Amino acid sequence: MARNFLIFAAAILLGAVALRADVVVLADGTELDAVTVIAKPDSYWLKLTNGQTRTIPRSQVKEVRKGTPAAPKPPTNVSAKPVTPPPAAAGVSEGFKYIKSRADKVEAPISAVAMWEKWLEANPQSADVESARVELEK
Length: 138
Hints:
The chain has four helices and five strands, in the order H-E-E-E-E-E-H-H-H.
């Protein structure tokens, strides 16, 4: 029984090590998290953590770091331009409120853009079109 537990624990630990991602840093500073990195004579073949595969020329790779990805870096090109809030929500439609609540919760900004574009396409005569355009520009 104890032996089975030790084998199981060792398998879990080895599996955790296998799940550690490598980080490929490109010449432009972009960091790609990869499950597998295979060096070829003139390129690197990557299997990314999202399941996609890519081949990158060696000339575009600055460094390959083994292990877990680094902590996210804060943005360096933050605009000092003040953000103007959208018009007051008192008179907005329920459809606008619904899309806004969904768009505010998405993780990928492109998803919010797609939601607002679809809403604008479906509601071209709405009184909320200008507010939707403001949201789209965020």
